[in-house]
Amino acid sequence: MTSAHFTEFQIREIVLEIIGDLMPNAAIGDDTDIFESGIANSLLALQIINRLEAVFEIEVDEEDLERENFATIKGMIGFVLGKVPQTCAMTA
Amino acid sequence: MRHDRVIEADAEAPRGRFRRFAELALAPHAAQSDQTGLLDPRVLDALRQEGFLGAPVSADHGGQGMSMVDYGLLTAEVARVCAASRTLLTVHNLVALTLQRWGRASLKSGLLTDLAAGRALAAIALSEPDAGSDIQAISTTITPVPGGYLLNGRKSWISFGMLADWFLVFGASPSGGAALMVAANTPGLSRRAELEMTGARAGLMAHLRFEDCFIDAEHTVGRLGFGLSHVAATALDHGRYSVAWGGVGVAEACLDLTTRHLRARRQFGQTMAELPLVKAALSQMFVDARAARYLCYGAGRLRDQRSAEALAETMAAKYFAAGAAMRAANAAARLHGARGLLASHPAQRLLRDAKVLEIIEGGPELHELLIAAQLGSQALHD
User: What is the pTM for the complete model shown?
Assistant: First the structure.
């Protein structure tokens, strides 16, 4: 588990940056299902997890592999929120 | 990534030990394995005794915790002398590493420790008669039943399928792609040897049939629905990395073999190595092999750093290194003249083994699709 602290706003910004980096040409809203919509393939799915792990210094394991954690931006933010300590609860 | 000193001297240090092992324990049996299509048991014993089966698995799970760079160096030295041994390292370790990543705690504390010690051998069962690169097309079914799953379907081109004790099997479940660890002695599982292969001939390739195989729910790898998108993707990534280093080994073996031959053989009053066109061919082989090693080393460093860029770099490394091996093997066979056409000549064996590396874990066309798709993103950094 990470020792780094992030606000909810910071987490959101970083997740948006990761998604923007990996899928720069896709229009993705907070609730867009990147798998259902066909935007993300398996390679991108794995890269998203690798990026989240690297940036937030967290580990994603078998128990975390739930669709709601990685299918949408909102889900990713919620997942990371549950993994990292927060400096304050700030609504984006 | 720094390009001024791509490979540090200390990172190359284990290479000598790996080469001595390969020359001593594997090379003497390689030609016979190639001829008979059977891996000499002494090869398997040697790999197991040195801890090379499961070497990159973490020490927490009974492995050596070998770095990915060292694992790559080992793979190249093994591939240099014996394609079947390289195949075994590839498939066994890719399953072990995938289990380490996505396996349940119970599988990690039990089966993974057996794989890490080489007490049990594993193979990956993904391809089917009608589903190769398009893994979404797999038709093997995984049906939930009380306490576990029923597995039905067929798998093809399973390297070391005739020897493996366990299979990482992929199929379609009602929740999407799924992955299971399946024991070779599971009732309803049968296997038969595939037809005679051209290269990596002692890879003990098998065809598997699953008929109402009951698999305990504890043997699920990753959650249902993530079997292809995450578990298979992880396994293929590890496979690509190993095959890429295999390409380095074959390319360098071709260069060594050909250089020795051309320096000894005289034509037109001089050694062949002195002929300008031959110098050009040797230069191309050397630069190809060196570039492949650099790409593989870069991918290995990124993997050791757990960098998110490792996936894309590994694809680039596999694409180039497998191509370099193929180009080098073609040149080696050609520059040996009629000798290079002898079925028993090492140049022929390397040519057949290089073709295997070019095709497995995704051929060049598939890699071109995947790599080009990365160019619009930041997955491949400058």
Answer: 0.91
